[in-house]
Write the structure tokens for this entry.
Amino acid sequence: MKKIISAAALLTASLLPTHVSAFCGFYVAKADTGLFNESSQVVYARNADRSIVTMGSDFKGDVKEFAMVIPVPVVVQKEQVKLVNNSTIKHLDAYTAPRLVEYFDDDPCMQMMYSKATPAPPMAAPVPAKTRAKELGVTIEAQYTLGEYDIMVLSGQESTGLITWLTENGYKIPQGAEPVIGSYLKQNMKFFIAKVNLKEYSKTGFTQLRPIQVNYREKRFMLPIRLGTVNSTGKQDLFIYALTPKGRVETTNYRTVKLPSDLEIPEYIKDKKQFANFYRDMFRNQVEKEGGAVFLEYAWDMNWCDPCAADPLSSKELQELGAFWVKPEANNMGGGAADAYVTRLHVRYDRETFPEDLMFQTTGNTGNYQGRYIVRHPWQGEASCPAANEYLNKTAPKQQDEAAKNLAKMTGWNINEIRKQLPKLKKVASTTSWTE
């Protein structure tokens, strides 16, 4: 697991934070819109018949040459137009981007010991952080951001509940920490916890044209794209971030198709360039396979994420992007808004494959989905039990081969070329004798 250098104090060393999420692993890369050359971004906030559409610009060159021509369903007056910060759209892009995550297999001998000692708890539906904290006897006494840190102050009724809460929120607690934590709780002491805030980025001024936002009422939930194909010489990529109070957004006049997700791929794809190549070719392969379809890359409420590719957007940021129904006091622990749901759609279009403008509907589907791809690092230690022998000779090679097949199927890459880049795995002699 990823570790952060800590101070020498015993308690601080006991709370080495991993990426804070309910995910046993950590996020290592994302497929943001920067991977695609000819692309545009639209944030579409929709509630009842009110639409607030923000059009991102990737214009490069002399601003004197810039022009934007956008069809709108009503006469848009001056008071219905405003400019938006580029950084807000970038934040939404990073938050919703398909991502690569990383697992490290444990020592199979240790897994066997753990499985005998303590059965794994069943997976439960996520509950709001404050509710879960209360169930465990934990109180969030204070919560704020200071500079580059997100800070919480916690108190607890007993050490088991506090350790459970910390573990569920991504903090790795070493063995032997419970008595120490318990002794401080008995003294009515609190726990100050800080983690780095990932969303404090460039505030050095505008370096490109800011997005334009229009606000209007219209019964039709639609986005005009045909005008953009008039003078286009080829296919274009369009990313749509739909914000609604609740429920996934889908197209009604074209198929909405989920990208392949939650599949393991080989270790070498962790390299930033390799991951970019993987995602571009995977998307291209899906476009060729599915034809004129709109692809779902992310659909999740703003209460939580697993794992988070960036911090959730604040209420202020969501309001800036048109989610007018979000109120400041709706902020939860992670900074997200409880009454906002985001859907990320990706379409590659031209006049032949998409002859109609995009028509949408908000569905009752509040389930979560994300484009997520997994790199699993095999355990390669010394075999000290039958389970390790089985793992090294059979399980790890099988996992590696399945990952290679997944990569070939998703991208269309040659399976033999993929296998040439796979690392050699350690094996042990099958004749090893074991004693209990």
Q: What stands out?
A: The two ends are 30 Å apart (CA to CA).
